[in-house]
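FAQ: What does the model actually see?

It sees only this:
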Amino acid sequence: MAKNTSKVGKKTNEEIFAGFQTLRNEQRQLGSKISELQMELNEHKIVIETLRGVELTRKCFRMFGGVLVERTVAEVLPELISNYEQLPKAIQSLEDQLTQKGEEINKYIEEHDIRIQRADRTMPEPPPEQSTSTKSNVLVASG
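And it is asked to produce this:
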């Protein structure tokens, strides 16, 4: 049973680069989401501290899906505290995913023999003992 691996096993440099870029974009999105949740955690902390010093029967407003609703502090405070307690778990989960994505990127780099080079630097010369016929992919990162 011979398998035809000529098309499946060989990727062009463009496909390899596109795969790498996809992984990097996913990593950046995870980082952005972590930052967003950390800011949300800080906002929750500030609001909770502020509402703890206010009468429980006082009116307050809360945004639900773009709609501003009127509630009392007694109704909103427990919800905010609950969210505040759950946010660190979500952040930790995303940080774990970010670590896994970094490992996946490193494996991809190794697997496809990618050399990352900054645009403002010149590429180092290969050691003399390396054969000139070895194939290596070079990725130039700008900025």
